[in-house]
């Protein structure tokens, strides 16, 4: 059991990463990775939403009528997303980030990772493993987001978390700021991942 | 228990929706004060950016409490006017009770309908008057704050914001400092139609009241252009008269609005 739990936590982060292996959540990983700060807040929001939605859906799993299960899951996910959005809006430090992330916080609802994990895992497992599975998948997603944002902010603005890292003479690469570069970078990350994980090929 | 019967399904979904609605309503109610405080500080930041009180980055780095203090220290007076240019209300500017007209949507509708309006004018100690603008962009509302110099004719600064314009295209009205900086030193030709032009190749005409529209953001630019002109038209009476007297001699904006009040 203990080994299985460990597998539940580690698998989504490394071997079965939702972005690089399952290719879920690509859209937002292109959109919110221009700066590390935004990517970090987005990652935390997704971690909270996937974790809590999986937990709630797992608690309800024996009572949900099968015919309307997708709708019930959607209501739960939507509630979590709206709660996260409201809390971000009310914090003094997070208000500006919420405005910057604008529609993408709301679009967590459509992030396939959330619904995918509920359908594939939470509906058939006990609450605690489901919570961990949701959180771990959020972490796996966030990890990739932060790697992409690291390179994009470094090369696109010469800063990290808003602090200047590269010398002032560095001319920012405008391609890096545009979404296509994120796709190229994501391709490279998937490539490296597949080389390292021989069994995935 | 049969979880697949019709009655169960209907009752279950109803219950879920009611519970979720209650949770959301409760949170919204609890968080409303802090959200409104954030929104107010955000409006003040944008106004003070337009008035040139401090550089925009410094305003965004400051805490909410510091922003309220900074505003109270720098504001001279604030009042509202009607479409005839006459003063019809005052806004408190003391630090503990800062009043703003920040619901611009109903004002915008009233301007277009020619109805009763309370258009805010915020006069800073530097002599710069800040007025809002509001209109429809491509996906949602666009708005902004324009700082007008003491001569009531030239623009001292501008700040634009939007709800959901396309990042990288329409969102440039807020994100790109060069766009708002283009407005500095331009003029507003009160009473003329259009009073200001935000159009393709407008700068090439050499007009002092023209700024080029943003490439790739035609609808956002058009929306902002309309917002500018509708609101400049609404403020035209007060500022037009003030600018006229200013050209003759040194008359401040508040003297004009006070004198029209007495008539």
What's the short story on this structure?
The complex is a heterodimer of chains A (201) and B (263). Chain A has 201 residues and is mostly helical.
Keywords:
heterodimer, A: 201 residues, mainly alpha, two-stranded antiparallel sheet, B: 263 residues, alpha+beta, 6-stranded antiparallel sheet, two-stranded parallel ribbon, 8 strands, 47% helix, 18% strand
**Regions of chain A with pLDDT < 50 over 5+ consecutive residues?**
none
Which spans of chain B of ≥5 residues are poorly predicted at pLDDT below 50? none
Number of strands of chain A: 2
Count the beta strands of chain B: 8
Give the overall shape of chain B, derived from the CA principal axes. Answer: globular
Largest sheet descriptor of chain A:
2 strands, antiparallel
CA-atom Rg of chain A in angstroms: 18 Å
Name the beta content range of chain A: under 5%
Order of helices and strands of chain B: HHHEEHEEEEHHEEHH
Percentage of residues in DSSP E strands of chain B: 15-25%
The overall number of domains of chain A is 1
Mean pLDDT over all positions of chain A: 88
Order of helices and strands of chain A: HHHHHHHHEEHH
Distance between the termini of chain A: 29 Å
First CA to last CA of chain B: what distance? 80 Å
- Strand order, largest beta sheet of chain A: 1-2
Give the helix tally of chain B: 8
Helix run count of chain A:
10
